[in-house]
Amino acid sequence: MTDPNRDDITSDSATGERNRRQKRTLPKPLFRLLLVLAALIIIVVVVVFAARSAVSSGEADDYQTYMGSLADILGRSDDLGADLEKLLTSPGETNRTQVQTRLEEFVTASKELEEEAKLLEAPKDLVEQSVHQIFLLVMSFRHRGVADLKPSLMAALEVQETEVAAEQISHSLYYLVNSDFLYEEVFKPDAAAVLQKKELTGVTVPSSEFFSDPDLASEKKVLDMLAGLRSTGNLQAVHGVAVSKVVALPDEKEITAGGKSRSESVASYRGSARVHS
After folding, report:
1. Nearest C-alpha neighbor of 169 from the set 228, 108, 249
2. Which residues have C-beta within 8 Å of that of residue 142, sequence separation ≥ 6?
3. How far, in whole angstroms, is CA 2 from its chain's centroid?
4. Which of 138, 190, 201, 268 is 20 to 30 A from 45 (CA-CA)?
5. Helices (H), 4-130
6. What is the distance between the alpha carbons of residues 141 and 17, in angstroms, rounded to a whole number?
7. If we measure between CA atoms, which residue out of 252, 232, 245 comes closest to residue 277?
8. DSSP 8-state symbol, 26
9. Is residue 187 within 8 Å of residue 135, measured between CB atoms?
């Protein structure tokens, strides 16, 4: 015999189970919409990531190109500095004409390097943070120092007085020594900080050394350098102006080393004495 109450209970239980299942299952249109939204989110994430990667790669290329150009310019500048330092400290049998020619070549080369540096296209952040400008100042110091050194050094080789000449040479050399300080202590760390902030780990800042001796511009080193240059036979300082003969006018009598004189005929009267050197 069937219990009607049990049938009702069973029917109610089945109905409740169906209701719970309906609550757990999303309607198909809503489910499809969520799938579409999820797909769109994934696409957006991929596009943003790809765009950022492209920008990062583009920045890396720009910085790599810039640093490569710096390395090339600085390499040639450092070679110039090494040659100049060798000329100053180990002149060998160099004569005055050769020294002047070499200095003129250094001036021309340093000017060309400075102009080449000015034409570089620096990354935006390096310009806005005045990092690139420090590099330009470094190259300006190097040209200025070489250009000022040439007349100072050539003048020092013409006279015996060393104090004034040493001061002028030291002033010129300090431009060159300070260019190394500016690069290593200001430009290099500031540029490295920008690269680190942008996480451009594959890009490095090149090193530079114009003079191997940072004390080359000191008074003592300059005096030692001048002493070395003056000890070279072809570079010895001029001790005075030689007088070949003294002629007294109007008689044009040449006074010889022994104090005697001899008469020479002349065509005109000049009324004064002159010295022929």
Report:
1. 228
2. 77, 80, 81, 110, 113, 114, 175, 176, 179, 210
3. 103
4. 201
5. 4-24, 28-89, 96-118, 124-128
6. 88
7. 245
8. P
9. yes
- Name which of 145, 114, 137 is nearest 186 in CA terms: 137
Q: How far apart are CA 130 and CA 247, in angstroms?
A: 67
For Cα atoms 206, 210, 212, give the angle at the middle one, nearest 5 degrees.
Answer: 105
pTM: predicted TM-score of the whole model, two decimal places: 0.66
Query: How far is residue 263's CA from residue 85's CA, in Å, rounded to a whole number?
Result: 56
CA separation for the pair 10, 238 (Å, rounded): 128
Per-residue pLDDT of the chain (277 residues; tens, 9 = 90+): 555 555 554 555 555 555 555 555 556 666 666 666 666 566 544 443 433 443 445 689 999 999 999 999 999 999 999 999 999 999 888 888 899 999 999 999 999 999 999 999 999 999 999 999 999 999 999 999 999 999 999 988 887 777 888 999 999 999 999 999 999 999 999 999 999 999 998 899 999 999 999 999 999 999 999 888 877 656 654 444 333 343 333 444 443 444 444 444 333 333 333 333 3
Question: Are the CB atoms for 218 and 170 separated by under 8 Å?
Answer: yes
Contact 180, 214 (CB under 8 A): yes
CB atoms within 10 A of CB 72: 13
Strand order in the sheet with 245-248: 261-263, 253-255, 245-248, 274-276
